[in-house]
From TrEMBL:
InterPro entries: IFI6/IFI27-like_sf, LEA_SMP_dom. Residues 5-49 form the SMP domain. Pfam families: SMP. Residues 1-31 are annotated as: Disordered. It comes from Psychromonas arctica. Residues 1-13 have a biased composition (Polar residues). This is SMP domain-containing protein. It comes from the Bacteria.
Length: 50
């Protein structure tokens, strides 16, 4: 059995997405790869903030 919360999700916030994107950019010489988790997180945060 896993420790994940089944049937519950936390929406991606702009702050969390920025933190993820910043971390990936630092690891990749300032680049965020198209289609990466960081890019998808940013997109999700934008949709959730509307």
């Amino acid at each position: 059995m896993s420790n994940s919360k089944s049937n519950q999700s936390t929406p991606m916030t702009p702050t969390a997405a920025a933190r993820i994107q910043s971390s990936q950019a630092k690891a990749n010489g300032g680049q965020v790869i198209k289609g990466s988790f960081a890019a998808r997180a940013q997109s999700s945060a934008a949709k959730n903030s509307k």
